[in-house]
Here is the input.
Amino acid sequence: MTLREYIKLAVKNKTAIGHFNACTIDGVWAIADAAREIDLPVIVGVSEGERDYLGVRQIAAVIKSIRAERDQPIFLNADHTYSFERVKEAVDAGFDAVIFDGAQSLLDENIAMTKKCVDYARSLSKAQSRDILVEGELGFIGKSSKVLDEIPAEAVVGEKNMTKDEDAVKFIRETGVDILAPAVGNIHGIIRGGDPALNIERIESISKAVQIPLVLHGASGNTADEIQKAIKAGIAIVHVNTELRLAYRAGLMKSLSDDCEEISPYKYLKPAKLAMQKVVEEKLKIFGKL
Here is the structure.
C-alpha cells in the first residue's frame, strides 16, 4: 500500500498515522523498530535542519532500504520546508511526501507558493510513476521543537486567529494539496505548565469543509484524550518531535553519567535510542490501529 492509501484507511477508521521526527540514525531506528513492534505504518519526518544533518539523499536511501528489507510500511516526509527549491530537492531525492510551510505568509502568497510546489510534485509523479503527497500549512503555530516558557507571541492560538473554514476551502481549491495542517490551538514545542487546549470543534468544522485529511502538528505536550478527540474529529496524521528529543537527551545523559566508563558509542547511545522508541510506541497506541 502507498502512503496515500494508508491515510485513506486511517480516515475511514477514525485513527491516525504517527509522524515522528529524526535527525540521527538512532532516531530512525527507534521509529522503525517501534512501528514494527506495534505493527503500524509510520512516517519519519525530517525538517530542513534535520535532513541537512542526515543528508537529503542519504536519509531517502535509508528509509527505502528499511522498507524493502523488512517489507515495512515506513515513509519519509520533508517536514516544514520553506522554499520551492528545498521542496524540489526533497521530491527529486525520492521523498514520499513534502510540506511547504507558508503559514507565516499572507494567504494569497501562501497559496501561490504552495501551488507551485504541488504542480512540480504532480509533474514528477506523472513522469516517474510515483505518488508524492504535498501538504499545505495554514496558520502559524511557531517553529521551536523545545520546551518553552510561554506561547510564542506570533503563534495563532486565539479563537479568532485559528484557521477559518472559508480560508481552508479557498486554500485547498486553489492549491490542490493532498493534506492540510491547520492552526487549531496546537503549538510547536511544549509549554511549561501545559499546552493550550486543542479546539476540537474547529478541527471537525474544517474537516467537513475541506473534505481532505488533516494533520496535527505540535502534538508533543497534548494529552492522549485530546489527541484521540482530534483524531475522531478529522485528524489523520499526528506529528511528534519535542517529546522524542527530550527522551533522547535524557537517555544519553543517563548513559554518560559520571560513573560511566563506556567508550563505545553504539553502547552508550543505545539507551537513548530505546528511550525514543518507547515514546513512539506509546504514541502509536494512542493514535489507534488501522
Q: What stands out?
A: The radius of gyration is 18 Å. Strands lie at 17-21, 42-46, 74-81, 97-100, 133-138, 147-148, 179-182, 190-191, 214-216, 235-240. DSSP finds twelve helices and ten strands in the chain.
